[in-house]
Amino acid sequence: MTEDRIWADESKEVWIGGLLYLAHRRARSGTNVALAPHGIDLRHLGVLGHLAAAGPVTQRDLIDALQMDKSTMVHVIDDLERLGLAERRAAEGDRRANAIYLTPAGAERLEQAMVAAGGAMRKMLGHMSIDDREHLAELLQSFAGGPG
After folding, report:
1. 3-class state of residue 57 by DSSP
2. Strand ranges in 7-144 using DSSP code E only, listed in sequence order
3. Of the four, 30, 112, 124, 139, which is 20 to 30 A from 20 by CA?
4. Burial of 146 per CB tally in 10 Å (0-12, 13-18, 19+)
5. In the 8-state DSSP scheme, what is residue 85?
6. What separation, in Å, do the N-terminal and C-terminal C-alpha atoms of the chain show?
7. Cα–Cα distance, 112 to 35 (Å, whole number)
8. Using N-to-C axis directions, what is the helix angle for 104-124 and 42-54, rounded to 10°?
9. Crossing angle, helix 70-82 and helix 59-66, to 10 degrees?
10. Rounded Cα–Cα distance for residues 146 and 132 (Å)
């Protein structure tokens, strides 16, 4: 049987989708356990990381960049403000929009949380060789950046 014939079977694509779902749940759960002592979860970490990389951005930009729905993003930003890790300010040039800023406490918490999250992922991936980890990262990056 040729490779084209094997992948013509739609159940194989569904199987890959199921594995991606299970991998996501495992990674999210393990990372959230590691982040709990820092008072945040993976959603908060994503927002803090994006703010650190991109600087102040609007809520709309965060929603687009992190592919999070609007109500969840509002909840996450509310949490981060309550914790003193981020703050809303009027966006320059558009008083109707809020820009989200990373606070100094947020930058410090992000640094601590990244160490914890990294340790959790190393533990979850510990059974894989370095080459396999790098290959997995390449495949996931290709998949995430692929068409529709």
Report:
1. strand
2. 57-58, 86-91, 94-102
3. 112
4. exposed
5. S
6. 29
7. 9
8. 120
9. 120
10. 21
